[in-house]
Amino acid sequence: MSEVNIAATPTAAPVAKPDPKPRRLTTLRLPIIATAAVLLVACVAPFELAPFHTFQLAMAMIYAVTLLGLNLLVGHTGQISLGHGAFFAVGAYTAAIAMEHWDTPYFATIPIAAAITFVLGFALGVPALRLRGLYLALVTLAIAIFLVPLLKRFDSLTGGSMGLVVDKPVPPAWTGLAEDQWLYFLALATTVLSFVLVAGMLRSRVGRALHAMRDNEIAAEVLGVNLAHYKTLAFAWSALLAGVAGSVYTWVIAFVSPDSFALTLSITLLAGLVVGGLGTTWGPLLGGLFVMFVPSFAQDVNQAAPGVIFGLLIIAVMYLAPKGLAGLATQWTQWLGHRVRKGKNHAH
């Protein structure tokens, strides 16, 4: 038998496998690039805009923090709240009362408002253990309804129907910032920190438990998720974020009154979250912009019936973007990425 020269035997060339790294890196870089671009624009904006527009953007970020808490509850946990404006009001009045009656430094009002609203949210989470759906919605709605007359009743503390006027935070001399710019950067810092903390929470075991509970409570309980613990925790954290936003609201507005926190505020916040995108990263921010600017736009279009214009705009957005503005932006990004990859493949 002749020996076979193994070394000389031709071997099939290995099949080149596509390297998934470039695509994976592109997928990871897109959110980072988008976040960096948004932060860059946010830092430059107060130096390019008029003071009133700077104030509007600060208010939009305050609403975004409130919607971040509401999104944690509704979008990531599957609970519902029609009274989130009440927690926002409690945070605002806590800051106003602390600054007006107790001469509390404005920075110190955030932990006070956060602690009070956290306790209130935890207390509301207890009945939520036995309620769900429309029944839970009615309970939260009742809180938003009776809060306004309650605020009017304690004149000596809350100022009654006239409300409370407080001093705005004065920018430190070393910053060289105007008052509106300083308030804007305070709101921006609060917003960035809140988004980072919630993003970290959602990536942890807590976030996985909340998502499991949202998708299927029975399956989540079988897997060992403590439903009572995480439901109350979701309400508490959601209320805390609303309270923090309310505290910063008092700094920016320098005035609180019961009529500023009517039932329509809670409904508008929920509508803004749905329009922005439930359960999405950018939904609260887009919803905050919607809550701030769309009512003003509706008022400019028709001063006799701004509510009609506002409602029609919500219907139009829901028809064109069922998953919210954030979902629509994601679809556009995916379509653009697909077109770019397709163009590269044709080039090769």
Automatic annotation (TrEMBL):
Q: List cellular component terms (GO).
A: plasma membrane
Give the GO molecular function terms: branched-chain amino acid transmembrane transporter activity
Q: Which organism is it from?
A: Nocardia alba
What superkingdom heads the lineage? Bacteria
Write the protein's name. Amino acid/amide ABC transporter membrane protein 2 (HAAT family)
Q: Report whether Hydrolase shows up as a keyword of the record.
A: no
Which portions of the chain have biased composition (kind: Low complexity)? 7-16
Task: Spell out where the chain crosses the membrane.
Answer: 30-49, 55-74, 81-99, 105-126, 133-151, 182-202, 233-256, 262-292, 304-321
Sorted UniProt keywords: Cell membrane, Membrane, Transmembrane, Transmembrane helix
Q: Which InterPro entries match?
A: ABC_transp_permease, LivM-like
